[in-house]
Structures are given as C-alpha cells and as structure tokens.
Amino acid sequence: MYKTLPGSRGIAYLLLVIAMACWGGNWVVARAIALEVPSLSLVFWRTLFFAGLAYLLARPHLKADWPALRADWRMISFLALIGVTGYASCGYTAVHYTTATNAALLANTTPFFTALFSWLMLRSTVSPRQALGAALALCGAVLIVSRADWGVLAGLQINPGDMLLMLGVVFWALYTVLLQGRAKMRPETFLFATTAVATAMAVPGLLWELSLGETFPLTARALGALFYLTVFSSFLAFVCYAHAVPVVGANVATFFSPLVPVFGTLAAIVFLGESLHAYHYAGFACVGVGVLLAARR
What we know:
The chain is mainly alpha-helical. It has helices at 9-23, 26-32, 39-58, 62-71, 73-94, 100-107, 110-122, 128-146, 150-154, 160-178, 187-211, 220-248, 250-254, 259-272, 278-295.
C-alpha cells in the first residue's frame, strides 16, 4: 500500500471531490483548443510540467523511497503508460473527432469498468446499495449532459473519437484499480516517477507532430489552457486521487466520477454565464444521493 496522509475516510472523500472538481473542466478546455493545439504535443508539455510540479513535492522523499522505486519500476512504467500518457493521448486526440455529449457520456462508464477490473483482479465486489447508488448517479449525469432531452440520446452517433475515448476509459479504470496496492512509497514520489516516465513516453508523439510541421502555439488561449490542464486537471487532481484511492478503494473512488459533469456545469454557469434549469437541479440531486449511497461502507 501507499503511505498516505493521516486522516479518516472523510478526508479521502474530500480529496475525491476536489479531484472531480478539477476534472470538471478537463475535456471542455481540451475541446476548446482542439483546433489549434496538436493533441500529442499537448500531452507532452502537460506531462513535462506536471512532472516538474510533482518533483517539488517528491524531492524530500526520493532518497527514502528509492528502494521501492527500484523494486517496482516495471509497474510504475506500466501505470505511467496507461494512466498518464495513454489516457491523455486517447482523450486529447478523441476530442478532435467526437462531440462533447459523447465524451461526457462515455467518461461516466468508468465505474462499470473499474468494478469489473476490481472483481477480476482483487475479487472486490459491489454491494446492492452501491450498485443502486452508482446507477442513480449515472442517471443524474446523463440528465445533466443530455439537458433532459431524450432526443439528444436517441440521435447519438458513434464515431472514431468514441473508440479512442472508450480505450482511455478502460486505461483509467485499470489504473484506478492498480493504485490500490502499489509499492510502499509516498504518493508524491509515485506521481513524480510515473510522470517522469510518462514524459519520456510522450516524446515520440511530440517528434512525430513536429515532423508534420505541427507545433504548440504560444498564444494566450493555448497557454492558459495548458496552465489549467497542468495545474488543476493533472497535478492537483492526481495528488488528491493518489492519496484517496488507497484509503477508500478503487470502486468507491470511481463512484465519485458522476460529479465531473456536475462541476463542469457549475463552471459553465459561473464563468460562461449559463443558466440553471430544472433538469440541472434534478441531475444534481440524483448524482448527490447516488454518490452518498455508493460511498458509504
């Protein structure tokens, strides 16, 4: 198990909420700059700066955690591949080819894949109450994303971007399950190690896009998006997630994912001036009750 911050499950729940809030704007921001920023270049620069921030936290613990790092380098490399480079590459490339509605709906299938991997690998089961809570939270997320217009759901079309997003969801679910029992080291050390390895893994994608003449634009819009994706969607969210998952378990952690569209909606209301409607309140209520049911022991 990871060495985690001292505290109760309540602190872990709070950390999960913070992580979901940070991820609330992740795909919105990525899609907003999709036409001007090459996806694999975005993955490289985001991961590089993420690794730099993680190093600042991990530096005091690197010497003590070095034996665990050396012993577990294979798993660290695998988690870097699926949880950092692979997940981001799939997601940031997919937003070029899919709709925001499809992306939000597919992202909310993560709890089902996580529960499947938890059962296959750890024989961890989901109680009927947790299943009910997860289903209720998913219904609330769908209500928010579809704006209570069932014609939106009926008119959904599968496209190549959806396949990439689904692969990213599988990567993230597997990453979440494997977080439960990794090497005995501080989460900060683990995050630095995985992001450092992930940065090296992202270099070929960067070089390939450079060979095609695609470069990261140094515009205020692109740099602002990179700042958000690095500091909030990556650094802060991953730190909270890495501390919380070993405490509450993979299944409970992933049951918080329907909060992502809730925070995305709230951000749109605050920063874009969008209005609250009845379906928002209904969706928020379903998600809140569902998460409470699924998270309780």
